[in-house]
Amino acid sequence: MTERHESFTPEHLEECRNLLTEKRRQLTEDLDRLRTELGERSAPERSAGAPSDTPTHQADAGTETFDRELQEKLIEGHENRLLAIDEALGRLDAGTYGTCTVCGERIGMDRLRAKPWTTTCLDHAPDEGEGPGDRRTPKPWV
User: Fold this and answer.
1) Distance from C-alpha of 120 to C-alpha of 84, rounded to nearest angstrom
2) Per-residue pLDDT tens for 22-67?
3) Residue 106 phi/psi, 5° resolution?
4) Among candidate residues 94, 93, 125, 102, the one with its CA nearest the CA of residue 112
5) d(CA 22, CA 91)
6) Could you say which of 31, 60, 90, 131 would form a disulfide bridge with 55 (CB–CB 3.0 to 4.6 Å)?
7) How far apart, in whole angstroms, are the C-alpha atoms of residue 97 and residue 118?
8) Which of 17, 25, 31 is nearest to 90 (CA)?
9) Does the pTM of the predicted model rise above 0.90?
């Protein structure tokens, strides 16, 4: 935890800016692709005639609905991440980047390298649950 108290060098801040800008570029490309796919998936539903690829079986319709809802959730997640990245870039410009919003201490560079849009140090990180290796404890089935 000693890294938390280090001062950020201009090189550290530039590294974080580069990480944020690259992640923003990737998310923007993914969003464009997801929106295009969602539009193509929804196009037959909006057309006046009954297209030949309209699902005719209830299971096909259920799969189509699931896929569409999954894409909508992915788009929403990407949009939220883009907002967090834009806010982090704003903090970089304002000179407040890398400070925990809970305790006011510096966020360690290892955490910023892993998640450059974060607003909290590791001690105050919410249960983020972002996939394998997260710190969540699964809830038991009731």
Assistant:
1) 12
2) 999 999 999 999 989 877 766 555 444 555 555 566 676 677 788 8
3) -70, 140
4) 125
5) 17
6) 60
7) 9
8) 17
9) no
